[in-house]
Description:
Number of domains: 1
CATH architecture: Alpha-Beta Complex
CATH class: Alpha Beta
Number of helices: 7
Strand content: 25-35%
CATH topology: Maf protein
Order of helices and strands: EHEHEEHHEEEHHH
Structural class: alpha/beta
Largest sheet: 7 strands, mixed
Shape: globular
Distance between the termini: 11 Å
Amino acid sequence: MKTIYLVTGNPNKLREWKRMIPSGIELNLEPLDIEIAEIQSLGATDIITDKAHKAFAAATGPIIVEDISAGLDKLNGLPGPFIKYFEEALGKGALHTLAQEEAAPATLTATMAYYDGATLLVASADLHGQVVAPRGGEGWGFDFCFMPDGSSQTFSEMGPEAKDKVSHRSAAIRNLLRQIAELA
């Protein structure tokens, strides 16, 4: 069974990843909790490629890294990849605070990479929706204030199984896992 290190200190992310591994794929995901100095860029591919190389240098095997972006239409896609810093400063309702209005159109983007020292695989997925006042009880990050287009529920209100069917992260995870399986 192949072991890959998922670079995260967030147990929620590890659980989400493990739920996404399709039956028939022999894969052991282990967390690797390391701090990576991220480059400051609006380019998701630049960020994830740099992150993958830095993480691999600190690992003992293949790694997976991810970067999440949340862009408000009214701010021309900002805060984008800088959302993490706004959440640290403003809390879990940061995206709603920045939106300054109910049902503000936004796009979430998940960009992920696998790197084994020779092969770099990148997967990305977007999800369009609206930023609403925080609600719901389950989840993390902006699960409480993001409602995908076509839904009347935030990710938090949906629960994990329903969220896994529609989220930007789950689409990118499935794409990356498919690419990894094709390497074997």
